[in-house]
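Trying the structure run again after the queue cleared.
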Amino acid sequence: QWEALNPLSVAREGLSATVLNGKLYAIGGAGLSSVEIFDPQTGQWSAGTGLPATLRNAAAITVNGKILLMAGQDTNNQEITQVLEYDPGTDQWSQKTPMGTARHGMTLALFEGKVWVIGGHDGVEFDSVEIYDPVADSWSAGPSLTVARNWPSSWVANGKIYVTGGRLGTSNYHASIEVYDPATNQWAVSGALPESKYSADAAVLDDKVYIVSGERASGWTLSDKVFAADLIPHRDLFFREANATAPAQPAPNQAPVFAGDSTFSTAENNVSASFFVGAIDADGDVLTYSKTGPDADKFNLNTATGELNWKSPPDYEANASAAGNNAYSVTVTVSDGTVSATQAIIVNVTDVADDVGIAVLYSLTVNGGTGGTVSGGGSDFSPGANAAITATPDAWHAFGGWTGAGVADPNAPNTTVHMSQNRMVTANFVAVNSPVVDPPPAQYVLTVTAGAGGTATGSGTYAFDANASITATPDAGHQFGGWTGAGVVDPVAASTTVTMDQNRTVTANFVAVNQPPPNQAPVDIHLSHASVPEDAPVGTLVGELNATDPNLGDVHTFTFAGGQGSTHNGLFQLDANGTLRTNAPFDYETNATLSIRVKADDGYGGVLRRVFTIQVSDIYEVPPNQAPTKIHLSPSQILENQPVGSLVGLFTTEDPDQNDTHVYALVSGEGSQDNPIFRIQGNELRTLGYFDFESKDTYRIRVRSTDAEGLKKRKSFTIQVIDGFRPGVETLAPINLKATSARLRGRLLDDGGLAIQQQGFVVGRQPDPSLGQSGVQSYSAASESANANTNTFAHKAEGLRSGIRYYARAYAQNTEGVTYGEQINFTTATSFGSGPFSQATGVAGKPNWWESPWFGTYYLSDENWIYHADFGWLYATGENAQSVWLWSPRLQWLWTSKQVYPYFYSQVDGNWFLLMENVPGQTIFFRFATRRWIDFKKENNIDE
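Done. Tokens:
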């Protein structure tokens, strides 16, 4: 049921709305840049982060946890190309790459991770489509709609995009539905809404799409109706008015109902033939299909859609049906998870005469909707012809486009139809504004017309909004082809109703059904095999009889015929389907040639007789067939954690009969307890699950090998699961040590028998870093292509701090777990930036020893601590490259620079020190405050 919510704090015209993290965002509107957020848990609105400027008629959509706000109109009501993104993590709006065309009144659809901007206008309606990639922040052009649409509605279902409604100009309101199919990369018209919809909203809920409210005609003719359609795969959408009142209790679960035919026919060798036996479910449950029956193994079944197709194309002459009559029997079961239904399917295979050609001509039916006339059409178009059609609107009407397949330009009143099959097209007209607008009458007139091939009833005068009944009745040799004209509730039903909210004209369309050609007698009879070995037992198959008949699809009955050549008819058996068998054993030495005469009857009076000579072949002693003696499986082991469908090994059979073929199958019996987690494909044993050595290391199966004569051998096998181990990895010494980076290196020693999922490095300032540990950086690394044979890998660790000791370990991971290599440590190079040692250079052969051009040689320990070759341990700091502050436990803070060195200023004394240079083994200062010499490294002073 519909219910009223708490109102917004301010009225908003032309706002944008979307849902993010379970809350409804109301964004902008005419003269507004504010945002309000509705929380369904509290039922209250709160203020959100406002837009950078006022914005109306933009389109909003939620993608990857963020809101995208596209195009619209600015403060001056000018269309813009702006794209804004709201990130709830930062609670800020940011600018993204703008779209190519300024517009408003468009609809957005999220399809395959990208945002489709469809239709709209900037004073002129658009049929164009732009596609935004939120990951790359880039735009590309999409395929254009078949008709321009301003303020259409859209939704995504069953791997396709649907667009409906909108308008072209001020009076051409659309009810048609367009569907984008990624397989063709095109839009195509498919069905229509019960009424036109402009500026309506669409929503998908519980496998249904709802079209809500909107304007259905010019002059603000608003609609409060909600239409809904079930989203059933492989079905056109059928919209009906939604029930506004929910049932008091949920309806009981109903069984699926088959919607497809139960009997099909197809010509032999038709590799592309498919047979839809799908079902529908009133509860909207997900359906699953399965097959059984004598010929089930000859078909593939789509378990999600119920579509059957041949595993191998059928050959009429080489009849493979279980019944032996080219009628293949399959039972299909459909289940909604609770209840199921079954349907018996028969697929009849008909013979095809390759040397008989039949001329094919196609018919074109051209219909005109209310408000105009049409011309064109006929019934004698050659395949591939382009038939001309013309639409002429009446006064106060405009041409609104063609509907129907094959139209070269659906938007042109004069165009052509490509005749690759029988076609039916309809010209649509729309009323344009007349100088006088009268109030709606209390009654409306319904005009029901019929196209060629049938009659239609239902014309009359009806009250406003009445549902007028209409009925179409096809003539002999025709079938109902659908209603054209607005307001028809079910355009594909012969008996339906029309919604009378205006004067209506609807047309019943009919299509000619192919009439069978005049019957002709069979022209030839063929016998697939005309020899039989001597001493063959009664009932031995000789061959199959088939008739060639100009009438495609004729089924023939075969019997023996008397007359010349029928001498040995009594020595054979012949069934009605043409199977010829022996009725007695034959002796080559007594009679090597036998003559029979047969008759083929097509059931329509066409009969052909023919004499066949059957050769009896001389057979020497042939040893009887022997059963297989041994079955082998090699290998009979599999590595743990392999994907489903992995190959375990191949079956072979030892058989005394050379060149015998064998069929393998899993069978019950001793040692068959683990059969369900394996499958056999030809002679391959493959897995149906994952195997974990620690859970179970051996599995038992039982297999049967059957030779061509049906003799069998059974054997049980033990399948061994091979244990996988964690990988082995080695940490190599890093190279290219710099102030903020180092190149880490590792080597994979052993993959543990399993695929490596990840390899890389962990780096930290504490020993034994590991993945996920606080303060530890991890790097995933690919194998070095130049060293693929050595299994080495490397990665540049960046963002390190200069002069710091780091600990690093290589790691590798497979499904058994993670292994770390031996720990190494390294210290990054010193980089004082613009500080006192920024011009220092490394000392060759002495890691981390540096030499200043004016301050001497020192060792960098950790950040600002150094060990000076003359002074020992000092703490150094400063931002000037020409001076430095030093701290030592002995003299506290000292300052010097490139200009005054070797003089040092003492912060404690407020006076100077002078370094006496080049005194071996000692660091001697003259202290001006006391005018005495002191040894920096000792406590005692030295006399002057």
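The radius of gyration is 44 Å. Worth checking whether this holds up in the mutant runs.
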